[in-house]
Specification:
Elements: H1 3-36, H2 44-48, H3 55-58, H4 72-109, H5 119-122, H6 127-174, H7 181-210, E1 218-220, H8 222-239, E2 243-248, E3 254-256, H9 258-275, E4 281-289, E5 292-299, H10 329-339, E6 343-351, E7 354-365
Parallel strand pairs: 2-4
Antiparallel strand pairs: 1-3, 4-5, 5-7, 6-7
Length: 374
């Protein structure tokens, strides 16, 4: 309901009603008073005089004066006073929230991203209250985005500084005589590959986030794609004494972009390998349910705290700061899957009230006929 509109409407009609009542009392009240007086037989000469009304009626001085409460000037003053009071209250009702919103916008313009409007404004049940709540949500999201950008700059600079520092040391060692130059060059190449992967990850997220990535719409054999990803991830799992267990059942082909789906599956599996403990396994299960193909990736790690679950797919968010990375893996996976009309969910594996691991489920429609970036 448009509360503000109805307040304007009611104030206008209240003022108009007061004006009508005062006009009624002013201009009709005197006549009504005279008509309500007891009827007295006019004098005989008045009955016989056909030339006009009696002298008392022709002379204004003999007419009865209206009472104090029926004088037009008093009614006009009351009407003006009531109008002024209503106008002032209405102007204050409108100007106060506008002044607060103006000040809040000025604070945002001065980079005060934590600005929030007071509950006295957000709890209102009219358009100003709705606007204030939307403003608080916008300011909170802006503050979160700014914090994410700052965190990104910090994390990216840290991730870039480490391999660059190692490359600088390796380059200095390679320039010295009697050193194993081929081995040093090989290590430098490995650092370059890490840098390239990091830059590619940031670029992929940027393209998916702003919608500049042109997704394809072709048939994909998801089983072959999962096997290809797991073959590459198996090397990483073996190096950290972890296992990768595959449970693949025959499924129908899905439509989408192979590079996007590959990137999503790779990020999810590598993330599971990173967080599962040593000498444990990561389960990769592919199966079909009706018109949906579902890929479930489960680890045996410590899971995620309940307060962090809603932020898992937030860009640059890391639930555990002890691990490397900049927090883009699940964000890229979510945008890549949604670009292929799929869905991705994540949550803890619970057993007897305790967290026994973490799993991510990617579902893709078999009969998808449209691929778009959100």
């Amino acid at each position: 309901m448009q509360q503000l509109f109805w307040r304007f409407f009611l104030v206008f009609w209240a003022t108009l009603l007061i004006a009508i009542v005062m006009v009624r009392l002013t201009f009709i009240g005197v006549g009504d008073t005279q008509l309500q007086r007891p009827t007295v037989a006019p004098p005989l000469h008045a009955q016989l005089n056909l030339l006009g009304p009696p002298p008392s009626m022709r002379n204004p001085a003999h007419r009865p004066k209206p009472t104090f409460w029926r004088r037009p000037l008093l009614h006009l003053m009351l009407l003006l006073t009531a109008s002024l009071v209503f106008s002032w209250l209405l102007a204050r009702y409108i100007a106060l929230p506008i002044r607060q919103l103006k000040q809040a916008l000025a604070d945002l313009a001065s980079n005060s991203w934590q600005t929030q409007l007071a509950p006295s404004l957000t709890l209102r049940r009219d358009e100003f209250g709705s606007l204030s709540r939307n403003f608080n949500q916008m300011a909170a999201k802006a503050a979160e985005a700014i914090a994410s950008q700052r965190r990104l700059l910090h994390d990216v600079s840290h991730e870039l500084r480490s391999p660059l520092a190692r490359m600088q040391i390796l380059t200095g060692l390679a320039q010295q005589p009697n050193t194993a130059a081929p081995l040093l060059l090989q290590k430098i190449e490995q650092e370059v590959i890490k840098l390239d992967a990091l830059v590619a990850q940031i670029l992929t997220f940027s393209q998916l986030d702003n919608g500049s990535f042109q997704a394809e719409h072709i048939d994909i054999n998801l089983t072959e794609l999962v096997v290809s990803v797991c073959e590459d991830a198996q090397l990483e799992a073996n190096d950290s004494s972890k296992l990768l267990a595959l449970q693949l059942t025959p499924v129908a082909e899905v439509k989408g972009d192979p590079s996007l789906i590959y990137s999503a599956i790779e990020n999810v599996i590598r993330n599971a390998i990173k967080y599962t403990p040593v000498n444990t396994s990561v389960s990769v299960h592919l199966q079909q349910y009706g018109r949906q193909v579902m890929l479930t990736v489960s680890d045996q790690g410590a899971g995620i705290a309940a307060q962090h679950l809603p932020k898992l797919f937030t860009p640059f968010f890391r639930a555990q700061s002890t691990h490397t990375g900049i927090g883009l893996g699940l964000s890229i996976a979510k945008r890549a899957v949604e670009a292929c009309n799929g869905n991705i969910i994540a949550g803890n594996i619970m057993q007897d009230g305790a967290i026994k691991g973490f799993n991510v489920v990617i579902s893709l429609p078999i009969d998808s006929s449209k691929v778009q970036l959100n």
